[in-house]
Write a structure and sequence with these properties.
The protein is 70% helix and 0% strand. With 171 residues, the protein is mainly alpha-helical. One of its GO terms (cellular component) is plasma membrane.
Length: 171
């Protein structure tokens, strides 16, 4: 959000070197995943209503795809400053205190990513013996999305902290 005009900014957020490629890859993964969900839904509807045949795996694919999509989109929105927030406290604070608050928020995102990865790692061991009924894959492949998204969240939050310390991130 542009503070002066109170309008969303169209410029891409600041990035560190190779992280630019990672951000682009994750965004393309989210786009591809969304397209796959839509295609599977359309094919499922066409099969069910026009051909009288149901795809047994389509509902699970869409459900797990949505979970992965949300997990990735949370961090994409964080990087772009697109999450809803209450700026009252931030706006009342002087420059340095406001910047410190933003840094604390970035540190909280980093901690959240660590907790997601830690929890996902614990679940992966147990879920490797469970098989998804519709897709027929082991559930550790499904839960790997949490590890992937948590890792991306850690990298993005760490990048934001480094950029903020270097003065390259707008408050």
């Amino acid at each position: 959000m542009d503070i002066e005009t109170n309008r969303p900014t169209t410029a891409a957020p600041a990035s560190l070197g190779m992280m630019r490629w990672l951000h682009r890859a994750v965004e393309w993964l989210a786009i591809t995943l969304f397209a796959a969900i839509v295609i599977v839904a359309v094919v499922s509807v066409v099969n069910r209503f026009f051909l009288g045949n149901s795809l047994s795996w389509s509902e699970e694919f869409q459900r797990y795809g949505h979970i992965w999509l949300v997990l990735l989109a949370v961090t994409i929105a964080y990087r772009r400053g697109a999450h809803i927030g209450v700026d009252l406290l931030h706006d009342m604070l002087p420059g340095r205190a406001a910047a410190s608050l933003r840094g604390a928020i970035d540190a909280a995102w980093l901690l959240l990513g660590v907790l997601i990865c830690w929890s996902a790692w614990k679940i992966l061991g147990v879920s490797s013996r469970q098989i998804s009924a519709g897709l027929g894959v082991t559930m550790d492949k499904v839960y790997a999305g949490f590890l992937l998204a948590g890792g991306y969240m850690i990298l993005s939050a760490a990048e934001q902290l480094v950029l903020r310390i270097g003065g390259e991130v707008r408050s």
